[in-house]
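Sample entry (194 residues):
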Amino acid sequence: MVLLERMMNNYTENGQEMDASGRKNGQFVPVCSIFTFPSVIIGRKGSVGSITYAPEGSWVIDTAFYTEILDHNILDLRFLFYSLKRAGLDRHTITTSIPGINRNDIYSHEIFLPLLPEQRRLAAILDEADAIRKARAESLQMLDELVKATFLDMFGDSVSNPKGWEIKPFGRIGDSRLGKMLDKKQFTGKYLKP
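Predicted structure, serialized as tokens:
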């Protein structure tokens, strides 16, 4: 196990609000930090502990931290990404009007650190698993849309009723009741089951 603080440089560089001279119409204007190297972004305010991989760099304001690895011969960024996703950083939430996380709590977190080839192997396996998970989620979404489309094709839209289905009040074709909350003396209706 190794402390995150020992593995990263400028780990929590974050944008700062301007002082009074930088105000626009009395409001503080957030300044962003732009970085062009691959990084992992950690939610700091509001989305406390959420982890995002930024392979081509990005920009953050004071609601997030970004990472810069000290030595790429010791720590793989994709491995760090998956380690942080499992780290449960949100347990360090400081509860205020806007939940936040303190950089020292992140720095003090320890991660398992195998040798670099093993980190890369594990990250590749997790990348494949994540790709399968995403493909499955897309497939389920498509199946859900297929079921809805099939229903509309078979029965039409229940509001506009393009198939001209006969419309009757539910009470004329069935009964409803609250299930097990009623005792047997209160069960009434002609569609009772033993």
